[in-house]
Batch of 2 targets.
Target 1
Amino acid sequence: MNPFSALFQPVSIGNMQLRNRIAMSAMTTNYGSADFEVTERLIAFHEARARGGAGLLTVEMCSVDVAQRYQPQALSLGDDRFIAGHRELVRRVHAQGSCVQPQISHPGPESMTDPVGPSVCVAAGTGWPCRALAEQELEPIMEQYAAAAVRAREAGYDGVELHAAHAYMLLGSFLSPQRNRRDDGYGGQTLETRSRLLLETIARIKRATGADFPLTLRISGHEGSFDGRELTETQRLAPKLVAAGVDCLQISGGVSHDRLVGQIVCGADTADGHNTAVAAAVRQVVSVPVMVVGRLHSPELSVQVVNEGRADIVMWARPLLADPELPEKLRNGRRAEVRECLSCQNCIDSMLLAPFDANMHCAVNGFSGREHSLRPVPVERRKRVVVIGAGTAGLEAARQCAGNGHEVILLERGPRSGGSLFLAATVHGANEPLLHYLRAEVQRLGVDLRLNTCADRAGVSALAPDAVIVATGARVAVADVPGGELPHVLQGPVLRQALAGRRQGLVGREPLWGWLARCLPAPFWRHLQPRHVRALARRWLPFGKRVCIVGDDLVALELAEFLQRLGRRVTLLTQAPVPALDVGPKRRQEQLARFDRLGGQVLAECAVRAITAVEVIFRCGEREGRLGADSVVLAGTPCSDATLASALQGAAAQVFSIGDCTGPGLIAGAVVDATHAACAIGRVYGES
Ligand SMILES: Cc1cc2nc3c(=O)[nH]c(=O)nc-3n(C[C@H](O)[C@H](O)[C@H](O)COP(=O)(O)O)c2cc1C
Ligand code: SF4
């Protein structure tokens, strides 16, 4: 019996019948046009998730007022001219068997154009204060909500979702004591006054659309802050919401008053399914279905939530970015083929990095947001593809090319696959599922993986490839520092080589790691997994008590956190104003906060001058500093390395360089490069 069968029982929201209990949560993508229109890109994005089997898709926040913009390329249902675009989206989603509804909202304080709210407050996203709405302005806004819901119905949507969660946007702000400080009939004094705008809006929508048009309400079960709403309040309010016309309650949690939405789009250290207990408590007081959202990233936990009656429907946001086919894979007994979300936050960061020209992308799924433009070209015959380097980029390219019907030979000079992903998965365990997924997929798809094989032009040409993909990774440059050769100093490339299992490079390079390489037999290195290294490191770690890591990037910061967690006193010495500038602000902030909580120290804008047996001498501006250190890591800087790619030019009809050998790009860069190369090589006609 399928262990996930409970997820595939049909369920109804009002008269909306879902084929299963899996819903996709709203995600702002910035795939809309600058004029609020639905685009082909947005449609293709949703179509892919519908094809992947989700029962219900939520289309991202649609502003009920065209004069109120939420994001640079957000959507709107504030005018009849938008109906046609939404209708096409609905048609394409329905054709794949999913139900679909838009999230409708007035951005309120979060507006980029004319921020308004219950009282004056500053929106974290824009940094702008909003104006308090006069009571007589509320009536037309409720009308806008109702009109938007009617347009949604005309477009063919199966229902609408109303956003009143997170003390966010207009309804969420009125509902929360944190933001509602008015003292009129819609004011913050009591639950009755704070919920009045929401209840009247629900009634208005139901009157306009008809009672049979399903309405889902997104609400925080509790707001998780000292001046926010409590669960008991939601329990008191919920039956009134249902009486007003709500057909389904969607339980999220927290408030989103930091720009990085830390309580909503939670990082790797937040408990899985962190809103489920609260959802279960709300479910006890209502008769309508309850959905729950928030880090339900484990299918096993998701099915348990449904089995135990904690919620009727589970909502996934990021898991469906990472793997749109997730529901179908579970339904068909293909659990092992699921590509899991790493909670790396690239999806949020890709929008925060350049807010006026930024679209959402997923680090582990190169097609996410590119479904409309990126497809493998059709080819008539099976090609022989030689991929060199079995790190993230090489494994992903091999996986895709094999999946597209080609014969793939994957050459790896080390004794096992993974490359720098092994280090990334060791120091940050949330990365480990990607390593296992890629390894398992290349095996399942019949990729010919040749370990301990160094590639050169003659060897590659002898394989007579139609296409060559060079994915040999970065060269890690370490600056010459006086004392860098001392025995307690570990060079980044040595650490990487050790963890990649390339023993040859280690012997004689550095006493301790060289000794390890010599003494431990080859099978040990071959079968070593990141979790083994973590377990071993808890018992024995070749680092002194005080560790100084010299480095600027995410890897250096992750290593610092890893060692600090293992009881070392770690100082990260970085030349940059802040470490990990190679990732976006959300991931960086999460990583830094964890390191900080553990007691780690960052010294920014500091350059190392020398290392002695007992200390690191550095310079910060004009000032010289000294830091006691028993162990030092010179993490180094990854740089592009075109050596092999240059040597292989012309070795096949198609030659690609991908991943870090073209310049550091982390997992996201490696995956998207691999996707582009695999698409250019193409898919064999008739292959699935
Ligand atoms: C890229 C991105 C955009 C989001 N945009 C919205 C949004 O427009 N409206 C909303 O209510 N929630 C939004 N969210 C929050 C998600 O709906 C969801 O609550 C959150 O990601 C937690 O679920 P997950 O752990 O399954 O990702 C967004 C999340 C992500 C990752
Ligand atoms: S970008 Fe990272 S956090 Fe976002 S969905 Fe993809 S893997 Fe998950």
Target 2
Amino acid sequence: MTWAPLPAHLAKAAAGNRHARRGARKELYATLTAVVEARPCGSCSACCTSLGVQSLRKPAGTPCSHLAAAGGCGIHARRPTACKEFFCLWRMGVLDDGDRPDLAGVVLNPKTTGGVRWVQAMESTPGSLERDETFAKLNRVAAELNVALVICRPSDQEPIDILGSAPNVEALATALRRSLPVTK
Ligand code: SF4
Ligand code: SF4
């Protein structure tokens, strides 16, 4: 089942909360087994381009300036905490072995807002979200993890789609509205 995208300002409010992001990872990781040893990053560095890194002022969709020419992180030992703590959900055993983000074209990023767990599915290879097969897999992930799954492109202001059960999508929408900053 698909749902209309949330307004951009709600999605932006959720994306900007660093503490919430960390809480999300810990909580969602805790529900999964552990980093799957058989699933190392290998030659993938999709998250280093498709996701933003606040401490580096690196926007989503821009290759990190620390990416090594031969692949991997050029500052591995002193990379930011956000990078040290991050594992995409493929590394946590979600999706199939062959769906490594650089091959599938989507990075699954665990998040939480106002205590509500959700997953951001960020396109890392242009065009990958146009495949029906990708949407079918993302629908399965939303059902299996019992979360709302927000599909985005780094270049777009608004999510492309939101997958998940009606209660999960409604819970996320409510949490996002609550997390909006109060301004004059
Ligand atoms: S997207 Fe996942 S598999 Fe690829 S480099 Fe990042 S954490 Fe590793
Ligand atoms: S600092 Fe290293 S791990 Fe972090 S985004 Fe840049 S290349 Fe990737």
